[in-house]
Amino acid sequence: DPVTKLKGLTFNLHLGFFNVRQLFVQGQNAVIAMSVSPQHAPAAFLGALAMRGAMFSDDPKVWRKMADLNPTLNADDFVKDMQDFKDSGLVDGIIRQADHDASAVGVGNASMQAFRKVAQAGQVFFTEGETMARLMAFGIARRKLPKGASITELSHEVTRLSMNMSSANAASWQTNLLGVPTQFLQVQAKFL
Q1: Neighbouring C-beta atoms of residue 38, cutoff 10 Å
Q2: How far is Cα 82 from Cα 55, in angstroms, rounded to an integer?
Q3: What is the pTM of this model?
Q4: What is the 3-state secondary structure (H, E, C) of the chain?
Q5: Which long-range contacts (CB under 8 A, 24 or more apart) does 107-111 make?
Q6: Within 10 Å of residue 171's Cβ, how many Cβ atoms?
Q7: pLDDT tens digits, one per residue of 60-114
Q8: Which of 120, 60, 121 is CA-nearest to residue 85?
């Protein structure tokens, strides 16, 4: 699919290739989530920092140990939050949102493997900014919604707090060839 390949190339040229600014650009969604629900922002921020560190492990025992070392965290709640965040698919969504990580997936042949690896590694600032924004939104959603809220409800609230920015809600004009030059206009189009 040449359109997907072109989108991948433009994604990497604009947002990837170690573009440090993307850490702050993507992190703006955290600020938006905090402004929507400022009463939950401080606790969500501390929780997001702890959760980002805990994401380096998939082991709930490690998560519990991290929570035990942090007096601001309840270990049971932290382990549940970590599991819910992982189960929600929000982490996978971040990786897919670099959605054009179809990025280099079809650009050239096997000789382009080095380019693919550099392109993927170059998304680090985009990915980290987006991860912190989603963790902040998740922490706010967890505190904002009723105690027994489902993972689906949490995911919907996180998406709402993130300005509904995902490839799943792209406009129809962004899915064809016209989507190549307009793929970064989703925010502006939503405000019209």
Answers
A1: 10
A2: 8
A3: 0.84
A4: CHHHHHHHHHHHHHHCCCCCHHHHHHHHHHHHHHHHCHHHHHHHHHHHHHHHHHCCCCCHHHHHHHHHHCCCCCHHHHHHHHHHHHHHCHHHHHHHHHHHHCCCCCCCCHHHHHHHHHHHHCCHHHHHHHHHHHHHHHHHHHHHCCCCCCHHHHHHHHHHHCCCCCHHHCCHHHCCCCHHHHCCCHHHHHHC
A5: 107/5, 107/8, 107/9
A6: 13
A7: 999 999 999 999 899 999 999 999 999 998 888 776 655 544 444 455 566 677 7
A8: 60
Residue 38 to residues 119, 139, 141, 154, Cα–Cα distance (Å)? 36, 12, 12, 18
- Is residue 56 exposed (0-12), middle (13-18) or buried (19+ Cβ within 10 Å)? exposed
Residue corresponding to tokens 């670099």: 98
pLDDT value of position 179: 80
The yes-or-no verdict on residue 9 having pLDDT over 60 is: yes
Closest CA to 192 of 177, 175, 173, 167: 173
* Residue type (1 letter), 159: T
129: tokens are: 């900014």
Per-residue pLDDT of 128-186, as tens digits, reads 999 999 999 999 999 999 988 999 999 999 988 987 766 666 677 777 888 888 877 77
Residue holding tokens 């600014």? 21
